[in-house]
Structures
1.
Amino acid sequence: MLLDMITLALLVPLLFLIIGLAITVAIDPYISREHSRTMMLIIILSVSLIVQNIWEDYIAAGPPHWFLRTTLAIYGYMIRPIFMVLFLYIVRPGKKYWGWALIVLNGLLHLTAYFSPLVFHIDEVNHYHGGHLHSLSYVICMILLVHLIYQSFNINRSSPKKGLLIPLFVSLMVVVSIILDKRVGTIIQPITFLTFAIVISSVFYYIWLHLKFVQDHEDDLKARGRMQIMLSQIQPHFLYNTLSAIQYLCEHDPKAAGDTTAKFSRYLQGSMSALKDDGEIPFIQELEHTRIYLEIEQVRYEDALKVEYDITCTDFRLPTLTLQPIAENAVRHGVRGKNGTGTVTIATREYPDHYEITAADDGSGFDPEAPVLADDGREHIGIDNVRERLTKLCGGTLRIHSEPGKGTLVTIEIPKKQVNAI
């Protein structure tokens, strides 16, 4: 009776915790569908592990039942490392983990308990005996735990290190529970320390998900704010100069004035659309917006500005207003600073794992390590903004190679959408 009361005292709060977590996950609109499925699988497996613990404990205290107790023990040892892999899917969803190979190996070796004492065996008087590989399940849990900490560190590399506290605490809790279970050994215990640690870890990882959601949301708001500032900063001098050019053409070349006005209208329309669409757009749309901008600049600079295109691929997407600010920099800080004629060249290439966009000018060049100053003396932040949006929205990169007196080459890489194995 005392054992039954102890079991209930352990079981009831644990079940309430799991049921509450299941209800919360089911009604939570803020976590992704993939995270929700993973959490539900963790909850289901947690319940099955609790049932296995109590059932095996009950059989261990009763008459010998070799096959059933062996089966329950095998299930318990097989399922524990699975939780570590599922926690990996919480930290980094959508990946393929080599941990499943360890899970399969662990399962196959434990199945040998039916006919070999390699891992463990139950004797005829219902006593448990560990074999040469009796610690296999715990060792695999530890290996996966180290990988979990590594992945948690990677995902928080660019964010405050406070985000690592929960994964580190969970890892410490699992390690301590494994040590305690090893010390208890064959002593009767209704629910193992590791089972408690796994259930509590599930709750902590659910909390971690929400903290990550809040952090990502705040970062996204900041990024969107910076992006909206950049997108709304249609350079006043460009507007004034374009209007002055149109005014001049109205007197000397009315047809060219009409064409330029139409182009300027399309440019403003594209800029206004970009203010509303801060996600990814087809490259062909971004190229058209950039082409209009450069055509207007050619009206202003006439023969002093040449533009060449070498477009070999267009079937990809990128953040809005990515190429146009690069082309604007090429004109403003490159060609305009050079005496005589300058050329801006826009090109694209496709590679097995990414698309490449280059914007080159043969202008005055600059020192990439020094801050680029705008006309009013303030640091020009357009490039940094483009680089940040590339990284955040599509995992892209932006590189600059420039030499004073020789020109500048800006290279943008857009990775192809694919699932990477880890």
Note: Residues 373-381 have pLDDT under 50 and may be disordered.
2.
Amino acid sequence: MIMYQTVNVEIKDKIARITLNRPQAFNSFEREMSREFLEVLDICQNDASVRTLVITGEGKAFCAGQDLKDAMREDFSFEETINQQYNPIIKKIRRMGKPIICRLNGIAAGAGASLVLACDYVIASEKAGLLWAFVNIGLVLDSGSSWFLPRQVGHRKAFELATLGKPVSAQEALSLGLVNQVVSAEDLDSVVEKMAFHYASAPPLAIKMMKEMLNQSYESSLDDMLELEKQYQTIAGSTDDYQEGLKAFLEKRKPDFKG
């Protein structure tokens, strides 16, 4: 376990378990937590032993977004905070070639809700929820929500979520496709661990390339994606993991992907 001031990370069994650790402030972001979180993401990206990440929050909340007390500093700058904290975090998560699971243990608001949307797979406690509360204090969407929301729920629902500032329950989030699973609070850890071990055992290069393909599909034509599929399938088909997958299939056993 590596313990920072505001973020903890444990790397074990090819899984990096990252915990936002400011429970007294509902794991809201301020400069130190943003800096430490980015540092932890860098460590996970550069550590070849890490095949998947799990992000969660300590205590009752997942992440309440920006710490408004921190935002009241005389030297606080929206432009600087977004440029140096939120945008780098979201970009790093989306561009990291490793699957990132969100263990949504409680409420995620503002930039915290954007962080949820940036993850690849979201498992929510039935007690969790999402909230885009920017409008309630006269602000606009940030940290990628204006990009993620319309693509995940369509324009009209995205407009509703952004402009009404009303909480979305875990079950509603599931029905909208904002989370993958909703489970009881008691089952959250076991379900997250099962999914984390699944991805930790998966062929890492294939997962990395599929994440890149899905990212690019938003801005690409069908012809572009067909060409990219051809290129990446050719690469995947030349790997030892492909040979191991074939062999395991024929031998009716679980493959041991080495990456």
Note: The CA atoms of residues 114 and 144 lie 6 Å apart.
